[in-house]
TrEMBL record, chains A, B:
Coiled coil: none annotated. This is TetR/AcrR family transcriptional regulator. The keyword Zinc does not apply. Residues 39-58 bind DNA. It holds the Pfam family TetR_N. PROSITE patterns: HTH_TETR_2. Residues 17-76 form the HTH tetR-type domain. Keywords: DNA-binding, Transcription, Transcription regulation.
Length: 205, 205
DNA sequence: ATGGATGTGGAGCAGGTGTTCCGTATCAGG
DNA sequence: CCTGATACGGAACACCTGCTCCACATCCAT
């Protein structure tokens, strides 16, 4: 009796645990490909499970979304840390923007949750604040070192990220990369454009 | 009998015509404020009419959307013509981009129809082609006159417009204008780094 | 004014969503 | 094995959407 009270979290049946992981994997792939608006029934169908099973593991829709996105968000946090560790201020900032865009390119659902008005976004409020604060550091360093123009603020970079996140043509790598390039030029100081850009400019007579 | 056949378009009852115009006005305001996804029932409610009346005047949802947006689209065409008439190539291009952004700021539904994947967009395919071709002229002129960098193409400007159209923070004038500014800097030639400096070089021989 | 053409309103249909219920199948400790 | 707790599947519910049907109201030419 007392043991039962202490052991609140009972070990779940192994098949149930397998189904849970399988569901997260399927949902993660599906959300990445087609966004967060996929019906629960469709996730269940692709996982080869019943709809009730999905709701047993994830009572509400947002629970499934947050579970599917959790490790991706952690991954983002790692990349942001890498940018903070980069010694060159411009490479740090532009690298963070690029890796943000890259996620957007490969995972349609992620930024929908991180930046959109999606209900599931609430679960990642803490991560969003962390990322915003880290990005602020990157911008400050870049401004102080003269890598970006003196009037550039964290708000400007937030505008850039939001533009990248909401970009409708983001499935096209060409278009997305062009947008990132144009925005980075907009941020950079006149003598400190991105390496790719300066290379291209030199090639043009 | 034969007269009835010839007179295919009969004059509608005056109250019906009034309701039709009222519906378009209500729908236009509603779509501008809250986007094109508003339910038909909500439009009917705001107009003080029954849902069946809405469907009599506009059999399908897209019919109402296109009717509500028709004069706005015509307005856009007029503004684009004004840009084509502007002698300064940079002012012409940046003006077109700015006025595009301004529409986005004041009408949430318009660019949703013009640039988004919304079903109603099909009705404005002709207008979109016209606008795209006009924009191409503006870009060509700007490139030839040296107002934008030599590698800038119409595709780049399309990327910019799409980014503006899909920008999620577009309800905030500050953020939207900042985005436009950053993008224009990304397009502009080095000696023309901000819209303000364009005043320096008014006339292009 | 009046009667038939024209227009209206709201209930109802069809299709789609998230979520719940409950009989049945499956696992795991005895 | 066998048996009870655990988990599953799919039908069903509640809600929302665009759209239709039809009895009733309104207009306007006669």
């Amino acid at each position: 009796m007392r043991i039962a009270e202490i052991e609140v979290t009972r070990k779940p049946r192994t098949d149930a645990e397998l189904n849970r992981r399988h569901l997260i994997a399927v949902a993660r792939a599906a959300f990445a490909d087609e966004g967060l608006d996929l019906p629960m029934r469709e996730i269940a169908r692709r996982a080869g499970l019943g709809i009730a099973t999905v709701h047993r593991h994830f009572p509400a829709r947002t629970d499934l979304v947050t579970a599917a996105l959790a490790e991706l968000v952690a991954e983002c946090r790692g990349e942001m840390q890498a940018s903070l560790d980069e010694p060159d201020p411009w490479r740090a900032l532009s690298g963070a923007v690029h890796s943000f865009a890259e996620h957007r390119l490969h995972d349609r659902g992620l930024n929908q949750a991180l930046f959109g008005s999606h209900p599931a976004a609430a679960a990642f409020a803490v991560d969003r604040r962390e990322q915003a604060s880290a990005m602020e550091q990157l911008v400050d360093r870049a401004r102080e070192s003269g890598a970006v123009r003196p009037d550039i603020t964290a708000a400007d970079v937030r505008v850039c990220l939001s533009a990248i996140a909401s970009f409708r043509l983001a499935h096209s790598a060409t278009h997305l990369h062009r947008l990132v390039e144009l925005l980075l030029i907009g941020l950079a100081a006149d003598d400190r454009t991105s390496p790719e850009t300066s290379a291209r400019r030199q090639a043009i007579p």
